[in-house]
Amino acid sequence: GAVVSQHPSRVICKSGTSVKIECRSLDFQATTMFWYRQFPKQSLMLMATSNEGSKATYEQGVEKDKFLINHASLTLSTLTVTSAHPEDSSFYICSARTERTRNEQFFGPGTRLTVL
Amino acid sequence: GQQLNQSPQSMFIQEGEDVSMNCTSSSIFNTWLWYKQEPGEGPVLLIALYKAGELTSNGRLTAQFGITRKDSFLNISASIPSDVGIYFCAGRDGNNRLAFGKGNQVVVIP
What we know:
The structure holds 2 protein chains of 2 kinds.
Chain A (H helix, E strand, L loop, with lengths): L3 E4 L2 E4 L5 E7 L6 E7 L5 E8 L5 E2 L8 E7 L2 E6 L8 E8 L7 E3 L3 E5 L1
Parallel strand pairs in A: 2-11
Antiparallel strand pairs in A: 1-3, 3-8, 4-5, 4-9, 5-6, 7-8, 9-10, 9-11
Chain B lengths: L4 E3 L2 E5 L4 E6 L6 E7 L6 E6 L5 E4 L2 E5 L5 E6 L8 E8 L5 E3 L3 E6 L1
Parallel strand pairs in B: 2-11
Antiparallel strand pairs in B: 1-3, 3-8, 4-5, 4-9, 6-7, 7-8, 9-10, 9-11
């Protein structure tokens, strides 16, 4: 149990386009979902926290108009990178939390975004 | 956000050896977690610790929640090649926020 999926697993796009990444909790309802960004050989950096039906809470320094988060249901959250630029290239990982397992965060497999 | 000090940052070990790594913080945490991440994948939860002094095992992995609530260690016994990966510690504070260490790259030499 506690499986989180992400789609797509990797995406290459041209500069200026927008990219949507989906995060789904497959076998549980997640009260809260999180979006992280990870650079090579670095730790995970929290970008934002989202609760179903409400606006996401962004970490300091993360542009909310650049990284749009929609938490449409208890099993789906999406991250849209708008007008992507090469510096947005990174590994994006979502996680979901459930009270069923003592509020532990379970992570998706990540999405590798490359902006040309 | 809070940063955890994780050491060592990388280690090369012979297959069969035991591995030990630890994580410290200047802040108190209510929960300590250990994750493993393999290349191109998300972190996978290995062990969760909820009480100061708690010692928990998961197969060849053993982790302990420090008495001061500011540290934790993870041991891997009798390492095998598939233990290779980056091991992250994480601490959860009273506001339910998770802070991560910088990770420990483990390489197992057959």
